[in-house]
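thread: overnight batch results

M.L. [08:02]
morning all. the overnight job finished for the chain we discussed friday. pasting input first so we're all looking at the same thing
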Amino acid sequence: MNILIHGGNVVNEGEIFKGAVLIEDGQIAHIEKGTAAPRGIYDKEVDATGCFVLPGVIDEHVHFREPGLTAKADMESESRAAAFGGVTTFFDMPNTVPQTTQLEALEQKFQLARQKSHVNYSFFLGATAGNVALFQQVDRHRIPGFKLFMGASTGNMLVDRTEALQAIFAEAARLHMPVMTHCEDSHIISRNMAACKATYGDDPAVIYHPAIRSEEACVSSTACAVALAKEYGTQLHVSHLSTAAELQFFGCDEHITAEAVVAHLLFTDADYESLGTRIKCNPAVKTAVDRAALRTALTDGRIYTVATDHAPHLLADKQGGCAKAASGMPMLQFSLPAMLELVDEGVLSLPQLVTLMAHHPATLFGVRKRGFLREGYQADVVVVQPNSQWQVTKECIQSKCGWSPLEGHTFAWRIRHTFCNGQHIYNDGVFDDSSRGEEVAFR
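M.L. [08:03]
and the structure it wrote out:
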């Protein structure tokens, strides 16, 4: 099918220009600069007048809960939410049931995604103290890298012994594969939790969550990961930075990068009063000073990518406080409108947003022919419209868990169209349920 997207403002590789994008057989065939639409006969024309045409978002950090936790979410529901939100590619985390720490479990996820995912997909292999020997057996063209949990929220996937960490960093470096880390010091967290329970009871209120999963816990673990990466020459990507203090480690070494997630860019600890455990996540949402520092780092090179850590739970699982309520929130469907809102606030520019949410994830993980609007690349494209207000309601939420911490919020930017491999999977409120994404290729 030939599709022409014309009349819009194309945002790509640092530029904004009036132009048209021609899609043929699932790929970008031509990008025409200027106001005149290319002449020709097309199967479909999309008038993007007054809109911006962007590369589809690559969300490198999601938890789609399948297999094993599908009461909360599954690949069909969450990939549909992705399409509604302009996200055309996701990389899923390994803490499912079974955990993605063996090759059989990894292959099971690929099989499920081929059957169910509406957008493009891949999966991290989880690193454990006992599976380093498997690293060399993985096809490095099929996965983005290895996910390492250096925090206490992932059961027996926690790796905090020095010898095991050294083996993981060394082997990943030998294979030239990235290690993506969750950095929180489990011993510090345990100490803080014990002290908090001694003062406030067995399930302290959620306002104490950032004191338990503290700045000290984050900085200690991040410092350890960075030191190991430097020692072994490993490509390190630290996920979901939440503190100003951690930013000291980034911006100087291209092999050591950091991710910010939308929750830490939107919320502060003052929001616990109104939103409670809906914004309980690991690492914890922290202070306004931390949020301001993370926002500044979006534009000075210290933050390299922006993702969601999309982690749906049933609202029943979010009841309680620091000890009992589940950590994580669904953010995928609304991540792009939320970041566009920060553009309106002057936090970053529109080209910088595209770099952080599409170009850099593609570059960091060596994604083949995605993440940019380039001739010959897969046609993963999103069309967004400014000055088009709409409100987040329960009825518009696509994630299976059925709620969002952004319910009631009014956005000024609207997702009008999402194309994935040239398929027009979301058309101004109309979704193509028959659409299927593709397995992402790397390196």
